[in-house]
Amino acid sequence: MKIVVCIKQVPDTTEIKIDPKTGTLIREGVPSIINPDDKGGLEMALQLKEEKGAHITVITMGPPQADLILREAFAMGADRAIHLTDRKFAGADTLATSYALAGALKKLDFDLLITGRQAIDGDTAQVGPQIAEHLDLPQVSYLEDLKFDGEKTFTMKRHIEEGYQILEVEAPCVVTVLSSANTPRYMSVGGIVDAYQKEVEVWGKDQIDVDETLLGLKGSPTSVHKAFARGLKPAGELYEVDTDEAVGIIINKMKEKFIL
Amino acid sequence: MNFSLTKEQELFQQMIRDFAENEVKPLAAEVDEQERFPIETVEKMAKIGIMGIPIPKQYGGAGGNNLMYSMAVEELSAVCGTTGVIVSAHTSLCAAPILEHGTEEQKQKYLPKLASGEWIGAFGLTEPNAGTDAAGQQTTAVEDGDNYIINGSKIFITNAEYAHVYVIFAMTDKSQGTRGITAFIIEKGTPGFSFGKKEKKMGIKGSATNELIFENCVLPKTNMLGKLSKGFGIAMKTLDGGRIGIAAQALGLAQGAINETVKYVKERKQFGRAISAFQNTQFQLADMNTKTEASRMLVRKAAYKKDNKIAYSVDAAMAKLYAAETAMEVTNKAVQLHGGYGYTREYPVERMMRDAKITEIYEGTSEVQRMVISANMLK
The Acyl-CoA dehydrogenase/oxidase N-terminal domain covers which part of the protein (chain B) (predicted)? Predict the structure, then answer.
């Protein structure tokens, strides 16, 4: 089986701060990581490889420093890595991003394409489904589990608000995975030693199947109008009372705010 | 000259730090309190290759180097001194001498199992009457056809009960002194080989420390490590490498104590402000950090030299001497800056201080390191 996993380098938002004056992220000193949902997707691929045998290609689109997450993917067990990077890709929204990725994916042969559900920096959850549309492939989003019958059929557990769905899908298809699906493995020491001996293939716009006018900022119908930090909420009020009294306090508060 | 880590080393440091933080740190207090060998941690380390970092890939190792190995021991020791010494004794004192002095057959037999962590390694040189004076060995190995018969005992052996393979030393010719010592590889379960009492220690309480007892223990000649009578040299070379590991352990303990102290002094308030606002705290921290960074430079220089096949014996001695004494000083200051809380087991710095003391003693006391360093100056 051939699997392609799309991964993205993101700032570790657990360690991020927002400049209260400008409303922008303070990127300085914030470590970059593999987006957690994408790492869950990579782990899902690695488990499939262990169970059924598979060749795993990881692909990322991003600036030169995104090379680091491809090395990390090698150290976890990926077989091939492709880095899509070109000045023409810069400023892409989700549509232009998924278009460029799809242009690269058309060059690859795969049975399963895995992306994370969403990235912790943009939180759109759009790129995976858009790639599936560009490639005209069936897609299943919000995956918690996936099994392969060894021939052509995947059985998938899809998270939905009230519970889950079990679906059967035939290869080739696209799935988006939740980080809660698994616990990603650590990179291995031997894997790290090898990661920098292996070649990361660097592809620009000329290596992929795309119309240049649909790339980057030019190809992006959406743009960010304004980003702002939510103000800090004041500390709540704490009452240590029995249930009846608590109900009374809550009803009064709701009346004060004209909710009731 | 370049003081930067390579990208590969940075990625390695990131991985090992995550591993230490998530898998090792949560167990550190319990392992100390219960004097329990953290076998589950060893299994996790084995899975990702930490038990075979500087062992070449052809023998099942990770194919890394001594610098990476020292970084691993440092990061593990920063959260748990016990875990640091388990890896250090296993790697430096058992796998390394087999790699350096073993026959191809011995390497094929032992290294894949040690590097994968399926087996844990240990080392037996010290005896009740042969500590710093290692030449006073009383354990004997007497030739008997195709075998040697071993009699005697070894004390203070790290990983003892939990290990599977041991590099030990015995007198094959008592009349020759140090020139009559030979090294052997012995497996757990060999008839006549048993364990004595488990030591109750001040620190590194989770590491298993036992006596090894040999009573008419029959070893085939093929278990001799290196040549007949060359054991003393093998022991000294092995300890040179081991000192890098222990220096890294001491370095990690000092860094761990600094990490805890920086966190604490920002939170702890006295006289209406955080104690980090007092100049005494600031100056203490500055000294702690400067000495710890100096230790790091010495450790990495020794590891670099070993990796590049440059004589490193004196560098390893300096690294161990300085890092160990720094660990003792820094952990002591860390407890002082924590005040009364630092003396309780609610905070990890008292454990770090207890763990640090052994780094001035084992694998060559600080006094032995001074002998090594000065002997090289005066020769």
Answer: 6-118
Instruction: Please report, as a single letter, which amino acid is at residue A128.
Output: G
Residues 6+ apart with CB under 8 A from B37: B31, B86, B161, B162, B206, B207, B208
ipTM of this complex prediction, to 2 decimal places:
0.93
**3-state DSSP assignment of residue A88:** helix
B293-309 burial code (b ≥16 CB/10 A, e <16): eebbebbbbbbbbbbee
Domains of chain B: 7-115 (1.10.540.10), 121-232 (2.40.110.10), 236-378 (1.20.140.10)
> At A32, which CATH number?
3.40.50.620
Q: How many whole angstroms separate alpha carbon B154 and alpha carbon B167?
A: 11
Q: Is residue A187 part of a domain?
A: yes
Integer Cα distance of B326 and B294 in angstroms: 9
List residues in chain B touching A: CB distance below 8 A: 6-8, 11-12, 14-15, 18-19, 47-50, 52-53, 57, 61-64, 68, 72
Pick the residue of A186, A196, A198 with the most B CBs within 10 A to test the interface with B by mutation: A186
Rounded to whole angstroms, the Cα distance separating B60 from B55 reads: 7
Q: Does A64 touch chain B (CB under 8 A)?
A: no
Instruction: Answer whether A7's CB lies under 8 Å from A200's CB.
Output: no
Exposure string over B315-345, b if 16+ CB within 10 A, otherwise e = bbbbbbbbbbbbbbbbbbbbbebbeeebeee
Please write the tens of the pLDDT for every residue from B161-193: 999 999 999 999 999 989 999 999 999 999 999
> Who among A72, A186, A193 is closest to B19 (CB)?
A186
Number of structural domains (chain A) is: 1
Determine contact: A30 vs chain B, CB below 8 A: no
- Find the angle CA(B374)-CA(B378)-CA(B379) to the nearest 5 degrees: 115
